[in-house]
Structure formats: C-alpha cells, structure tokens
Task: structure prediction
Amino acid sequence: MGALPRYAAVRSGTAPAHGGGRRGFTLVELLLVIALIGMFAAAFVVNFDAMLNESESEAVESAFWLAVREARTRALVDRVPQAVRFDEESWTFVVEADGGRGVRRFPIARENWSPEVRLEVKFQKRVPPSQYALIAGELVELREIETVRFFPDGTCTPFVAAFEVGSVERSIEIDPWTGAELLEEEEAA
Result:
C-alpha cells in the first residue's frame, strides 16, 4: 500500500517521520512572554497628566512670547514705550503704550484645560547684590513687579517671567538688550 500522504498522517494523529512532534508553545514560554510584555509596559508607561500640563504650560508661554514680540515691535515702530502686564481675571497678557493708549490683548488658549488647573504668572526683577535679603533662611534675589516695559531703542526692563501651571513651574529670564530668553550658563568642567 504505500506511505500515507502528509495530511493523512496529521489527521490520524501520527506525526510525519521527517519533522518533530512539537506543534506549539509550552506553558513556560507563554508565561515568559507575558512577563516580558508586562515589564515593557511598566517601563514605558506614559504619564498623560504630565503631558496635559505640558501642553497647558506651552499655551501660557506661547501667549507670553506673542505679547513680548508685539510690545517690542510696537515700541520700535511707534517710538513709544510699551508695557506688558498679566491680567489674572481674564488670563490675558496685555500690551499697552504709555498712558494706556493702543491696548492689545493676548489671551491664553485654554479650551481643553481641566477646570481645576491653577495658573500663576509673575514678573520679577533681579535686585542688586547689595539689596539681597535673607527671609526664613532663603536668599531673596528677585522682587515682584507689575509690568515690564519695552523701549523705543530696543531694550526692555530686565526681568524674569515665572509661570506655574498646575504642577509645572518654569522661569524665563529675559535679556534686556535683545528681549530674548537668557540661557543658563554652562557649568565649568
């Protein structure tokens, strides 16, 4: 009679002579794969709350930079000093010329914000070392100011913009000569 065709051997429960009898994964292999997937998932979990706060802080910074750019440009073009302040009630950066003329507002885009997000914006000025104060064991080098001014010669009040959006804090120090962000100096090696 002859040998059975390959499919007939499988159907009858006998294994073909040329291959091994193994046709699946063992329980140990399956458990090992599940454990590896669990370890990778735990290592690469994305913190969605931090991502939301990051986009919220980006919205604050975006409105801030728009206001700074507008104030600097208007001061240069109109040859009139401009002031930038933050309106806490409307969450808006306000640019106005001296005397309150030509007010322009830059609201923070917060359509997708959680209602319980807390926002704090402060403008601060560095004080000279002779005016440093030691309060409750901390050296105070900054003094809070209401507005920052941009002048027709391209300069501005030297200031630090401090933002606190939810749990994210960020400070931007502005160069008074260029109106750009001052980067931290690299530490000496």
Remarks:
- Strands lie at 82-87, 92-97, 104-107, 119-126, 133-135, 138-140, 142-145, 147-150, 159-165, 168-174.
